[in-house]
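Repro:
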Amino acid sequence: MCFYPESAVNPYGANLLNRRLKFFRVLLPLLLIFFAKMNRPAYASDDNNLALVFRGVARTLFSALEIPRSIIENSTGAPFPLNVVTGTVTGAFKTVAGTVMGAADMARGAAPYAKYLVLAL
């Protein structure tokens, strides 16, 4: 039993498939151009690795200061007890995010040297 007349567009039939194919015909060349334009070297330079490690250390160390900074930032926007609570919660999230991202930066910077660990053992 067909609920659609022959002249109507059937959203569950071939028309939907054609729309998806058109979407991917546009999306695929854009993705290929995007990935082709990325200038990432096949090797990691020492300067880049050291910069990642030091940025990770700085993020990890200074993430503890996010709670007081967030409390000070929120001190003018809300009444007294609310600004301390919102600043503490926001600062806690920023502290956790800074610590995790700092650890990720340090891991990214140290990853090319992990192969030498096997030789040292």
